[in-house]
Amino acid sequence: MSDKNTVQTLNPATGETLKTYTLLSESEITQKIQNAENAFQDWKKTSFEERSEKFRKLSLLLKDKKDSLAKLMTEEMGKPITQSKSEVEKCAWLCDFYAEKAEDFLSPVSKKSDGSEAYVRYDPLGVILAVMPWNFPFWQVFRFAVPSLMAGNVGVLKHSSNSFGAGEAMESLFLEAGFPKNVFQNLLISGKQVKQVLENDHVKAATLTGSEAAGASVAEIAGKNIKKTVLELGGSDPFIVLADADIEMAAKTAVTARTQNSGQSCIAAKRFIVLEEVYDKFVEAFKKEMATLKMGNPMDENTDVGSQAREDLAKELEEQVQKSVEKGAKIILGGKRDKAFFEPTILIDVKEGMPAFDEELFGPVAAVIKAKDEHHALELANNSEFGLGSSLWTANLEKAREIASKIESGSVFINGMVKSDPRLPFGGIKKSGYGRELSTNGIHEFVNIKTVWIA
C-alpha cells in the first residue's frame, strides 16, 4: 500500500507491481450500498427461472475465460496455474449446481400444527456483505455469491487487498452474464472500512473467510448491530493414519492434502497423526512422495508448488518452523525460504507446545506426530483450538464411523482428502468458525426462515 487511500497489488513470485487501486471514500461506500438496496428491491421479485438462466450464462463465461482468469489469479497470489484453472472450473460447477437445485432447496415446506395449514417459506434478507481472502480468490467468493443471489439477496464484496483485480473481474463477469447492475458489487475498501459497511442499516448480514482476528472483529461489529454472521476461519486439520491403513495411498494423498494451493488452504491437512506401528513406514513414503514435487514459477504448467501469497507470510512460516525446531522438532525435508518461496517441508518429532502443533502453518509444511494408540491419536487430533476438517485412514470402516463421531471438526473424510463440494455442507467449529456454506445448509444461512400458520 503506497498511502492510506491506495492499494497496490504485487506479483509475489516476481515482486512486480501489477496495479494501483484507489480506495472508496465514505460517501462512495454509502452510495454503493444504497445502489445495492435499490437493486435488491427488484432482484428479490425475479423468478428462480430468471436467476438460474443468468447463472448458467455465468458458468459458460467462466469456462470461456478460464485461461485469462487463471492467469490473473496466479499473478496476484502465486497459485500454480493448473490449480487456478481448476478453481475457475469449480466455480462454473457451483453456478450450474445452484441453478438446478436452488428452487428445490428454497421451496416452502409443509408442517403439521393445530391450524388448518402451516408451512415454512424462505425469503431473502437483502444486502449481504462478504469479506473474502486471497487464497482461493474466486472460489471463496462464488460459494458465497451463488447461493445468496439465487435466494434473492444481493451481494457486496470486500476482497483481500492481494486480490483486488479478481474482485473487479468478478463484478464484470456478473454484468456480462446479464445480472442487473448493482446486484453484485466489488467494493475497493480497506479492512478498516468494513465497519462502515456493516453498520449501514441496508446491510443485513455478513460472511467472512479469513483469520481468527478478522472473524472476531467482524462478528463483534455485527453483534453490536444484531446482524447474522457466518465465519470460516483457520484450521489445523488432523490427518490420522491407523495401523491398518493403506500406507502408500495415505502418504500419496497426504502430499496433495498438505501442498494444495502451495499449502495455503484452511482445510489442508496440517497435523499428520500416525500410530507408532506404522510411523516409520509412513514417514519414509511421505518423504519420498514430497521430494518429487517441483517448486518454481507458478505460471509453469509443471509447477506443483508456487510462491506464498506474500513474502511476509513466507517469513512468518519460517519463524514457526524455526521455533518448532528449537523446541525439538526435526526437519527431514525442505525448510528453506527464498523470498516468497518456501520449500515443501516435513517436520517430525512434533509435539504439543510447538508452533507446528498448536498453530496453523499456512504453507507447505507438514507436522508429523507419533501416537501410541487409537485413543491417543483421537486425543491429539482434538487437542486443537481449531475444528474445520479432518481425515482418517483405516481399512475398518465400522471403526472409522465410530472414531468420526468423536472427532471435533466440521467434516471427517475417511480414506480421502478433505475438500469443499457444492453438494456437501462446509464449515467448522471451535475457533474455525460457525455456520455453513454450500449444499442446502449454505443457501439457508441468509434467508428469513418464516413460519406461516393458517387457522
Structural summary, described in words:
- With 455 residues, the protein is α/β, with parallel strands linked by helices.
- It folds into two domains: 6-233 and 432-454, Aldehyde Dehydrogenase, Chain A, domain 1, CATH 3.40.605; 237-421, 3-Layer(aba) Sandwich (Aldehyde Dehydrogenase, Chain A, domain 2).
- The chain is 40% helix and 22% strand.
- The protein is built from 15 helices and 22 strands.
- A seven-stranded mixed β-sheet has the order 12-15-16-11-10-18-19, with helices on both faces. A six-stranded mixed β-sheet has the order 7-6-5-8-9-21, with helices on both faces. The protein has a three-stranded antiparallel β-sheet with strand order 3-4-22, with no helix packed on it.
- α4 packs parallel to α5.
- It is globular.
- It starts with 5 loop residues before the first strand and ends with a strand.
- The mean pLDDT is 98.
What keyword list fits this structure?
455 residues, alpha/beta, seven-stranded mixed sheet, 15 helices, globular
Q: How are strands sequenced across the largest beta sheet? A: 12-15-16-11-10-18-19
Strand content: 15-25%
State the shape. Answer: globular
Structural class: alpha/beta
What would you give as the CATH superfamily of the largest domain?
A: Aldehyde Dehydrogenase, Chain A, domain 1
Task: State the helicity in percent bands.
Answer: 40-55%
Report the uncertain regions: none
Biggest pleated-sheet summary? 7 strands, mixed
Q: How many strands in all?
A: 22
